[in-house]
Design a protein that fits this description.
Blueprint (H helix, E strand, L loop, with lengths): L4 H10 L12 H24 L6 H19 L5 H16 L6 H23 L5 E3 L2 E5 L2 E2 L4 H19 L4 H16 L3 H16 L3 H4 L4 H17 L2 H12 L9 H14 L11 H7 L7 H29 L4 H17 L11 H9 L10
Antiparallel strand pairs: 1-2, 2-3
Pfam families: Wzy_C
Organism: Clostridium saudiense
Keywords: Ligase, Membrane, Transmembrane, Transmembrane helix
């Protein structure tokens, strides 16, 4: 069996940035991983110096947004390694997607696929939780139950995209990963994960209908998301859907106490409404808003980057929509669009912290025409 050195190289480049939190519990091992990460940072810098990479327009705007948050944080005396990590992963996608043979995307899918199957195994072996962290026992290989979906959805979409581009249909292997993801979120009882997968699958089905397909864009979806957020955060939604949420779904309209956190976060946002405060140390917000983040993606954007950040992201969505329109392969694009919109929906009750694969999805769309195979 011939070993493809490029595939091996990409796997080695990818692994340290997607190892779950479980591997950081041991301080000695955590230090080794950090050293490994820094060395891969240097490798990517060297690769960029050796090869002139033309970054896509969606990639440039997303990087602008991330650098804006990083610089604001530095101005407020906080250097965020999380934002640096996000920047690195975006640059890695821009580099890897220029690979003609799609080795990067397939290597990434292989790594995520192994993690997801291993995570299901950990759930089956330790049904009550694999370890306790920050007071929560519902942690498995990929961490706490709700953030798992932030790996599941992009991995499923990448698998479906590869199979569609390669064979013109969804393969059993790609569909199996979707099924495993569904089984996992049900077993760990993640309402966020279940909602995310339902939205993802519904959009995949809806976009197969030409009538609906032409109306679904990232820009429109985000505008609708902002409107829904307004009704939810202000409490207006309670008047209209309170019966459905509390009477039928048996869920609280306080969204597990999130409404208090939202109001506290809004007080800070109002003082920095235009440009936000950049990224910040998690413990900084604990006493101010009652959590390390506001548990809402819209408020999290405003907190970090203000109205300017919202406008940058809206511009990124508009540009990405134009790429999709001119791609000539709307069906392939809709696989990724479905994930991004799912993130928006989950963002009503989640800040999407740690969703390091969310912004690279825009970069995939910006390079969608580079992902080509001879149909088998």
């Amino acid at each position: 069996m011939e070993i493809n050195l490029k595939r091996v190289g990409y796997v080695l480049l990818i692994i340290p940035f997607f190892l779950p939190a479980y591997f950081y519990l041991n301080q000695g091992f955590a230090n080794v991983i950090k050293l490994y990460k820094y060395s891969m940072f240097m490798v990517l810098v060297i690769l960029y110096l050796k090869r002139k990479i033309r970054i896509s327009k969606p990639g440039k705007i997303i990087l602008l947004y991330l650098f804006f948050i990083l610089l604001l944080g530095i101005f407020n005396k906080y250097f965020s390694m999380d934002i640096v990590l996000s920047i690195f992963i975006c640059l890695l996608f821009e580099y890897g997607l220029k690979e003609k043979n799609n080795y990067f995307l397939e290597s990434l899918y292989n790594v995520l696929e192994v993690l997801i199957y291993a995570n299901l195994l950990s759930v089956l072996i330790f049904p009550q939780g694999m370890y306790k962290y920050a007071g929560y026992s519902a942690n498995w290989l990929l961490g706490y139950k709700n953030p798992m979906i932030r790996v599941f959805l992009p991995a499923c979409a990448i698998g479906l995209l590869i199979s569609y581009k390669k064979y013109g249909k969804f393969t059993i292997r790609a569909l199996c990963l979707v099924i495993v993801s569904i089984i996992t979120v049900i077993l760990v009882d993640s309402s966020t994960g279940i909602m995310g997968l339902i939205v993802f699958l519904c959009i995949l089905l809806i976009t197969k209908m030409k009538f609906f397909d032409k109306y679904i864009t990232l820009f429109r979806a985000f505008i609708i998301y902002l409107i829904v957020n307004f009704f939810v955060i202000t409490g207006i939604a309670e008047k209209y859907i309170g019966f459905f949420i509390e009477g039928i779904l048996h869920r609280s309209m306080t969204f597990t106490g999130r409404t208090t956190t939202w109001q506290n976060a809004i007080e800070i946002i109002n003082k920095n409404i235009y440009i936000g405060i950049g990224d910040y140390p998690p413990e900084m917000m604990l006493s101010s808003i009652g959590g390390t983040h506001p548990h809402n993606y819209f408020l999290y954007i405003l907190l970090q980057s203000g109205i300017v950040g919202i406008l940058i992201l809206l511009f990124a969505m508009k540009v990405t929509d134009n790429y999709i329109k001119n791609s000539g392969d709307k069906r392939a694009c809709n696989i990724i669009v479905a994930v991004i919109i799912s993130f928006y929906v989950m963002g009503i009750t989640e800040s999407l912290t740690g969703a390091t694969l969310m912004y690279p999805l825009y970069i995939i769309l910006g390079n969608i025409n580079r992902i080509n195979y001879y149909k088998k």
